[in-house]
Amino acid sequence: MKRLFLLFAIGIASLTMNQSAKADWEQFWNSVRVDYVRNKCWPAPFNYQDRAATNSHLNLMVQNGIRLQNTLGRFHFDSVTHQINHAGEMKARQILRNTPDRRSVFVLEGLTTSVTEARMQSTKDALARIVGDERSLEVYPTSREPSGRSADYINDIYNAERQSIPAPRLPAASSDSGS
Description:
By secondary structure, this protein is mainly α. Among the domains are: 8-44; 61-146, CATH 3.30.1330.60. The N and C termini lie far apart (141 Å). 62% of the residues lie in helices and 7% in strands. It contains five helices and three strands, in the order ααβαβαβα. The chain has a three-stranded parallel β-sheet.
């Protein structure tokens, strides 16, 4: 009786283990098949993800470049009144004329909020004078200053260079009687 019970218990245990081993074996071959198919068609399923990952960085760089290109810096505003000056209005015209699909204008923040607000309002007023419709324009503050110098500084350098050029002189004539 004990032997019969022991054989019965061993039979039940082996059937139970056989089922779980069979399930693990099927799962193993299923994963082998999936890995084979994945490796066989390898680059194609991942091309779109790779392109999206690459383009997200490129799109970010393009957006940052557009922001710097469309930014009115400190040289575009009067340093005392913080109103937009002639150079700022010309830059605003250039932004509106040359970038019709990217008409957002960015204004460099001042040291205080009152300076930033004065610059923003002055820019909105100037854009409204240029375009006529104030509602279609987007003006945003930014903390990134575009690289560059004021036009007055560049003009001073140019004038100093022009004034330092010596007057043209012809070399002295030589009376060589060489044959």
